Amino acid sequence: MTHEFKETLLYVENLSVAYDDTVIIKDINVIEKDVIRPNVDCTGQVIAFLGRSGRGKSTFFKALTGLVPSNTGKVLIRDFDNSEPNAAKPVKEGDIGLVDQKYTLFRHKTVTEALKFSLRKTKLSESEKETKIKQYLKEWGLENCKDKYPNELSGGQRQRTAIIEQLFSSDNFIVLDEPFSGLDVGNIQEVKKAFDLLGKSSEVNTVIFSTHDIELALELAQTIYVIGYPTIDGKLQSYGTIVAKYDLREMGLAWKDYCGDHLELSKEIIHQMMIS
Ligand SMILES: Nc1ncnc2c1ncn2[C@@H]1O[C@H](COP(=O)(O)OP(=O)(O)OP(=O)(O)O)[C@@H](O)[C@H]1O
Ligand SMILES: [Mg+2]
After folding, report:
1. For residues 240 and 276, is the Cβ–Cβ distance under 8 A?
2. Least distant ligand from the CA of 177
């Protein structure tokens, strides 16, 4: 046995969002369960969303994190404060951290100040906060940036700071909208490393991200969803929904280096994206 599915972490049912009268996404259904792997401590999940531009990935992420209201449907997340098996609660703004496409940071706060601010809701003492910030800055290679303002940081440094901010202010879930866009090849490696750290962190165990880079999605994720326009009765619709789901664990492609089988799957995914 390579893995076993446990409790539901994320449950999205019939979610739809409209801006004014235009339906942007509709009929979105997602169930993600906790996964246990024998002899592996970390049970972190990485879930990728792919899809052509304008299909509604960012809109879905905003609805998922409670930043835009949904028209129909519900989003439930595992209630970690409740010890009952499968205890779930409706998501509200602040439960799931969203690192947005532009990864905006506070312009007038240094990295340390911004991180301290994102810990304001925790019960940690001042010295515990300082220790935690120091530990993260070290682990994430940001020690030299601790007193810098956002305009003094590189894209990758800003991105990592934004990720840590969200890690500090939300627990268990983190959503990243195109975390790799606009980064150079070195920064991409840094953020990939950050994904590894996220998977190993005991605080966060579900990482959801969108990307236009299919290879990166195949490398990092265990589940890949494609958001696209569905075809109904031969007619292409103009709202986004989940048109395909690939469970890399079930396909024997998760937790391993990119290989020929991944390449085959990427061709299928490209085809799926082109027709939706
Ligand atoms: N605030 C808004 N008001 C009206 N329409 C919007 C708003 N935000 C997004 N849209 C529209 O919703 C659709 C989906 O946009 P969204 O940003 O979710 O796509 P996306 O899949 O994230 O695209 P990309 O890959 O380019 O980031 C687009 O047609 C967009 O024009
Ligand atoms: Mg987007």
Report:
1. no
2. 2
Q: Using CA positions, which residue lies closest to atom 28 of ligand 1?
A: 54
Domain count, the chain: 2
Residue 188 near residue 41 (C-beta atoms within 8 A):
no
Mutation choice for ligand 1 from 26, 55, 67, CB with most ligand atoms inside 8 A = 55
Which of 19, 25, 103, 181 has most ligand 1 atoms within 8 Å of its beta carbon, as the pocket-test mutant?
19
Tell me the per-residue pLDDT of 75-127, one tens digit each, with 9 for 90 and over.
Answer: 998 887 888 877 888 988 878 888 887 766 777 999 999 999 999 888 899 99
pLDDT score recorded for residue 3: 79
Long-range contacts of 246-250 (CB under 8 A, 24+ apart): 247/222, 247/223, 248/218, 248/221, 248/222, 248/223, 248/224, 249/2, 249/3, 249/35, 249/222, 249/223
Profile the chain (276 residues) by mean pLDDT over runs of 10 residues. Answer: 78 96 96 80 83 97 92 90 82 84 78 94 92 91 94 87 85 86 80 76 79 94 96 97 96 90 96 97
Ligand nearest to the CA of 212: 1
Angle at 221 between CA 219 and CA 225, to 5 degrees: 120
The range of the structural domain enclosing residue 201 comes to 4-95+172-274
91 shares its domain with 201: yes
In this structure, are 196 and 251 located in the same domain? yes
Q: Is the CB–ligand 1 distance for residue 24 below 6 Å?
A: yes
